[in-house]
Amino acid sequence: MYDKINIESKNNEVIFLLYQVALSNSSLKKTFYCQSNIPLEKGERIIVKFKGKKTIGYVLEEVNNSFNKDKDTLVFQSKLDGKSFLRSWLVDALKDAALYYNTPVGKLFDLCFPKGIENYFVEKVKFNNPLYGFEEFTLNEFINKFGERKLQQFLKDGTISVFKDFKLKVPTPRKEIYLELKADLKEVSTKRLTEKQKKVIDYLFLNKIVSYKELKELLDINKDVILQLKRKKLIEIYENIPEKIKKVVLNEEQEKAVEEVVKSKSKVLLHGVTGSGKTEVYLSVIERLNTKVLYLVPEVSLIEQTLSRIYSRFSDLKVEVYHSYLTKSQKVDVWLKAIKGQIDVLVGTRSAFFIPHNYELIIVDEAHDESYYQDGEVVYDINYLADKFPGPVIFGSATPRLDHYLKAKENNMKICKLTKRYGAHLPDVEIINMKKEEKVTYHLSKKLVDEIKNELDNSKSVMLFVRRKGYSLIMCTNCGHVVKCPSCEVALTYHKSNEKLKCHICGYETEVISTCPVCGSIMLLEKGAGTERIEKEIQNLFPARNISRVDTEVIQDYRLFQKILKGLYNGELNILVGTKMITKGLDVPTVNLIGVIDIDAIQSLPDYNSALNLFRLIVQVVGRSGRKEKGKALIQTYDPESLVLEYAVKQDVEGYYDYELKQRRALNYPPFVDIIQVVVYSNEKESGFKNAEKMVEELKKHNIQILGPTEFFIPKIRNLYLHHYIIKTNKVLKVNQTLNDILVKFPAKVSIRVNPPSLYFI
């Protein structure tokens, strides 16, 4: 076909070029070599023959042709796309990440192409000389008109070019209207307003100008409501954002941060307390650089509020969203718009990073969040990849990554600090000593319940953080037996809503038992508290109130989460009970009280990041309070003397980080050294441990520092026994190569994780 035309020298000898290639959909961690008789572009997809079968390969780079053919050589068949859609820096970054995280390189590149994208390709032919006077043909039309021989001849002499185009609808321009509050509080008080009109006015008091789309989605209002408010001369309606409103007035710290980012054109840590206006800094940088942007958030739940802020500021930008909840066709649509250059701002979770969007600025919001670390067969960290970007990147967080903080401290990374809340004050934080405090239920203190009642009486909303989902664990009070999963060494969680016992590791579920399977006793105790149990207790205490819970059991569809948040924004939802999903960057002005129910178990986890994670969680969850006025946070604990709590209550991030870095330097832990966790799976417990021991013995021959092996924190998962060991090194690439060479000698299944956010979860 057209892509098999030979490159010939003056002596009519065929010239072969050599390329490094990664195989698509392959678990192999190595790359291959491929000879081609036509030039190939870095990053483009090609068809190669591997083990007798045609498969897709990714061209990583052209290499020196002086080599000896061996088993790592692939047979080139043809081009697939006809060009590369991946920028050179991204190809290099993905290749580096595959080596660093010891993960299948081809599967990492697969993330750049949504499934089914080939169905949208159309091969076209164009004449390179305009004197021919022909328009473009599809490839089939050209062959039908001129024949296959003419195609080959024209390709060879450069008369024509064959390229891939796409079936793509041109997006319809988005029409929007904007609302501005024109009256002050005194004037508003003289008007008779409906409930929905009051909601709009309250929301406008918090924002200078908002789009109708934002109000409609958050407050569930129609255009009649805003037209009535205009007739009452309380608001002004615009078809475009007025320039006087577009210009946001930044405080001194924000202005300095924007100038530093624009000037630096490199990597910047934006370290701002919760509610300090980091988003305004992001948007001002976008405005001043006037360039294409990739805007990353850790959770899908944060996308809507991010979009609202962008729409309110930039009415003329083409904004798209990309995340895992999109349908297959929606993902393809965004991908096609990206490669066509039809996106100005791409907002999304970590998967959006791989879309071949021609951005010139990356924003990583809540950069510390563990959601940016992808676990599983393919392992990577968005922060690592973003650091490879040859342009400005803003890593924003109230509780930064330790490695970012250390780099900034050692002047290896620019840091911009925001120390004041934007338009509000940090909330008051109170520790409730559960050893002494009077309790209304086993899990809720009287102090917390009284504060909740007070907030509700003042028409405010409340958020309650609970560490885990579900209702409780089931334990026999006679013999102490805890009901566990038959396939995993973990306790089953009781879910009262559907009367099931569930394993949150493998998904196993069964009916609730009435007698102990060990001793036959009926004395079964519901031990511990999950979101469902706290929700039930709160409902019993406040039966007339609207209460919802948010955890991964409930929120299978992110749109449901948006519906719940809408209830919070418009004041219809009184109390929200949730796991860490509610701690991540949510900006809900109606919430003035945050209650933290149970945190003690987090710090006691046998994990090098447990204390740091607890600190971050408290700082972040407390930061959800008092976005409109000074708020309050109540933290229940049986360990009120905790050093982590002491720092977190004061929101003293720098003080705690300096303490934590001192500890880690002494113990030789990240960020002063890299760690590689190797988890070994086996069918038999004893043989599995012996296998892990032999691996460690082999590794120690290479002077590698190792902790373990030992039984994994969860000894059994999905009927497999787990053991693990920890490697400490400053030479990750070298150790990974040695590790791979040694693992070939052992048939065991292993999982390798480099600098994981937690050793505990896999």
Automatic annotation (TrEMBL):
Catalytic activity, as annotated: ATP + H2O = ADP + phosphate + H(+); Couples ATP hydrolysis with the unwinding of duplex DNA by translocating in the 3'-5' direction
Matching Gene3D superfamilies: P-loop containing nucleotide triphosphate hydrolases, PriA, 3(prime) DNA-binding domain
EC identifiers of the protein: 5.6.2.4
Keyword flag DNA-binding: yes
One MF term in the entry's GO annotations: hydrolase activity
Amino-acid positions noted as binding Zn(2+) 1 in the UniProt annotation, renumbered to this chain: 476, 479, 516, 519
Keywords in alphabetical order: ATP-binding, DNA replication, DNA-binding, Helicase, Hydrolase, Isomerase, Metal-binding, Nucleotide-binding, Primosome, Zinc
Binding site for Zn(2+) 2: 485, 488, 503, 506
The keyword Ribonucleoprotein is assigned to this record: no
InterPro entries to which the protein is assigned, alphabetical: DEAD/DEAH_box_helicase_dom, Helicase_ATP-bd, Helicase_C-like, P-loop_NTPase, PriA, PriA_3primeBD, PriA_3primeBD_sf, PriA_C
Cofactor: how bound: Binds 2 zinc ions per subunit.
GO CC list: primosome complex
Domain Helicase C-terminal: 500-667
Cofactor(s) the protein requires to work: Zn(2+)
Domain Helicase ATP-binding: 259-418
Single Gene Ontology BP annotation: DNA replication, synthesis of primer
NCBIfam families: priA
Function: Initiates the restart of stalled replication forks, which reloads the replicative helicase on sites other than the origin of replication. Recognizes and binds to abandoned replication forks and remodels them to uncover a helicase loading site. Promotes assembly of the primosome at these replication forks.
Family: Belongs to the helicase family. PriA subfamily.
Name assigned to this protein: Replication restart protein PriA
Originating species: Thermosipho japonicus
Lineage: Bacteria, Thermotogati, Thermotogota, Thermotogae, Thermotogales
